[in-house]
Specification:
This protein has about 300 residues and is mainly alpha-helical. It has helices at about 20-45, 60-65, 80-110, 115-125, 135-145, 150-155, 170-195, 200-205, 210-220, 225-240, 245-250, 255-265, 270-305; strands at about 45, 55, 65-70, 75. The strands form two sheets. Strands 1-2 form a two-stranded antiparallel sheet. Strands 3-4 form a two-stranded antiparallel sheet. Strand 3 and strand 4 (about 75) form a beta hairpin. The longest helix is centred in the C-terminal third of the chain and has 35 residues, at about 270-305. The two termini are about 40 Å apart.
Amino acid sequence: MNQRPKSPSWPKLSDWNVLGLLPAHLIMLMTLIIPVGIIVLVSFSTRGPYGGFDYVFTTAPYKQILFNEGWSGELEFNPQYLIVVARTVILSLATTIICLALSFPVAYFISLQKTSAKMLLIYLVTLPFWVSMIVRVYSWIIILGNDGVIAKALRALGINENMGSLLFTDTAMLIGLVYSYIPLMILPVFASIEKLDPALVEASHDLYGSRLTTLRRVILPLCRPGMAAGAILVFVPCLGAVLEPVLLGGGKTMMMGNLIQLQFGAARNWPLGAAISIVLMCAVMIFLLWRGVQAMRKEGREASA
């Protein structure tokens, strides 16, 4: 007699190793889920009469991102926050592209060295992380200032006579962002190049492929996962950067990070700051989920091919 196939059974609680993972679950609950839940709760609250918030449910903070309320209660479109979002995205994309362009030759050069030299160069790449971010950003104030190294060099060459200060500009902010986050691009790109099979590069040259052709059709496609990981590691922190806009931009150019800081600080509008934080977090999560789905679809196509 034919036996009926057994219906799939749910995994037992013991199979999930709940007790073994309990410390990790508690840490995640205390440091991630509860704080995010508090921010969500604040974003749907009412601003207090003297700042802070009151537990009165409202969607006004989210409406305030796009609209202002007129004297008669009608909503008027206000693009100022959208301009801040657009500026943040543009600077973050520019930082990511520049970091990628500068990191790839550095990572490729490191991969060609001997093991001892590789360790030393990787150590030098990660060395800036041993210093406080505030100290590193402040150092660029000295470098880009009117009496800094760059200004003196340009003045000696007669170039900086009619040029304004490099500080408190979008260029200074971009330089600070690139300097702060370029190690996060070098490391994953280097790891991807390290996995590259040298025989594939040699085969490309044996088939009369030029250096540019080998780079474009062999090296870059195989290093794409590391480049994508580095782009995410640079782009996402740039969206919430605070020190670079404040110190190198002089607070004149607003980005999402210092806009949120302003709402929780001087403006004392906690619900609006929380709403902007949630919108930023949701945008980053959607971007990461989209990248994950794209990677899974690509793996599926490659497996079925």
